[in-house]
Amino acid sequence: MIAKTPKPPYYVVIFSNLRTDDDENYSDTSDRMLELAAQQPGYLGVEHARDELGITLSYWADLESIRMWKEHSEHVLARNMGRSRWYKQFMTRIARVERDYGFEKET
Amino acid sequence: MIAKTPKPPYYVVIFSNLRTDDDENYSDTSDRMLELAAQQPGYLGVEHARDELGITLSYWADLESIRMWKEHSEHVLARNMGRSRWYKQFMTRIARVERDYGFEKET
């Protein structure tokens, strides 16, 4: 659930979104995009949560990997559907992870 | 719900977490931390979502603001409670937002 990313630096695409009521093809397309993203060069992992707000974090080795995934033809089609149907509002942020630290409870 | 952040560059603290079953004082402390963070110098906004995974994104003007918030005495106490009681696992990532773009549906 929490992505196992390598030592920084690496990159993250933060996709924060509010959905419309239009669910047609949303889940299938969303699943397909996660599956497809995971096959791309430079992909490091993904994390996702939603209640009212949806947040998807995808982690990448470098900006070039992010650019290539952005231009992937199936991803372009999905994004166009997103704008026209599924999302009321979104913000995409591209950021360079400079430091990270984790914690896991001993069981 | 989606934070209105300024033009990049700015910083984000990505807090991805899995909770334990221990809810005692969790909501109150969580609300208090959001309230307190919003009063700190350099604070730019926050976004939060949870289903199984919880993701909290807090946005900051610079690394110094993040460091000062990390050292805030009430925040230190809350983090200690987090490790001992509320979180099974978490990862904190500090990243520099280099680019962003948004979309809002015309109504």
Can you describe this structure?
2 copies of one chain form a homodimer. Chain A is of the alpha+beta class. Chain A has one domain: Alpha-Beta Plaits (2-Layer Sandwich), CATH 3.30.70.100. Chain A contains 3 helices and 4 strands. The first copy, chain A, has a 4-stranded antiparallel sheet with strand order 2-3-1-4. In chain A, helix 1 runs antiparallel to helix 3. At the A-B interface, strand 1, strand 2, strand 3 and strand 4 of A face strand 1, strand 2, strand 3 and strand 4 of B. Strand 4 of chain A pairs antiparallel with strand 4 of chain B.
Sheet with the most strands: spatial strand order of chain A? 2-3-1-4
3D shape of chain A: globular
Share of helix among residues of chain A?
Answer: 25-40%
Number of structurally distinct domains of chain A: 1
Largest interface: A-B, 41 and 41 residues
Order of helices and strands of chain A: EHEEHHE
Number of strands of chain A: 4
Uncertain parts of chain A: none
Cα-atom Rg of chain A, whole angstroms? Answer: 15 Å
- How much of the sequence of chain A is in beta strands? 35-45%
Secondary-structure content class of chain A: alpha+beta
CATH architecture of chain A: 2-Layer Sandwich
